[in-house]
Amino acid sequence: MLNHKLIEQTEVFLKKTFEDSLYLNAEGHLAGKNYRLEHTYRVANIGLEIARKEGFDETEMVIACLLHDISYCEDFGENGWIEHGRRAAQLARPFLAGLGLSEDRINDICYGIAIHVDDKADFEGERTPFALSVGDADNIDRFDVYRIHEILSNDGFLGMEYEQKRDYAKKRLEKLREIIDIPLGTKAAEELWRSRLSFYIQFFEKLVSQIENSKSIIF
């Protein structure tokens, strides 16, 4: 069962942190703030789905996912992105203590947040299925309909020449086929991952076919 009060408190904390952030509210960063919040909610909903299927505490999983990127309130600097999971855990820990959660649950939540970027934490913890699911939910969100639009737009797909479009789509397709069967922290996450990747593969297969039919008559 979801503890709506604790989740609402976490939402308020997250949004206030972003609203109070000088970095996120600086000129040129507002779109990034909106995107980060939208991404966070998608990850939380994926985490909730995993928790329900695996029997994890649903409230704790939603809270962990809501806080996994809270460190985006700060300027990472030149090489800071790789540290943002560990920094997010540091920001989350005192808030979690204020919610009245037990120390072992706080540590499991923070460990999942800390390792979600590069699988490393700066404190002792266990790679429990729960902790691994924070990163799994984050990674699963990389493969949805929204992200297809985002990557094609950001990579300038429509401005590419024919050969560039063809090679780009083929490389994407090759990579997707390589990673569809990677192991994740739970069976539920693996099912979601393969479902998302299968959709992506189908999309890029059709895209490659359409591109190849755009140059000449195929006899």
UniProtKB/TrEMBL annotation:
Stored PROSITE patterns: HD (PS51831)
CDD domains, per database record: HDc (cd00077)
Domain HD: 36-143
Protein origin, superkingdom: Bacteria
InterPro entries in the cross-refs: HD/PDEase_dom, HD_domain, HDIG_dom
NCBIfam families (alphabetical): HDIG (TIGR00277)
Protein name: HD domain-containing protein
Organism (species): Agathobacter ruminis
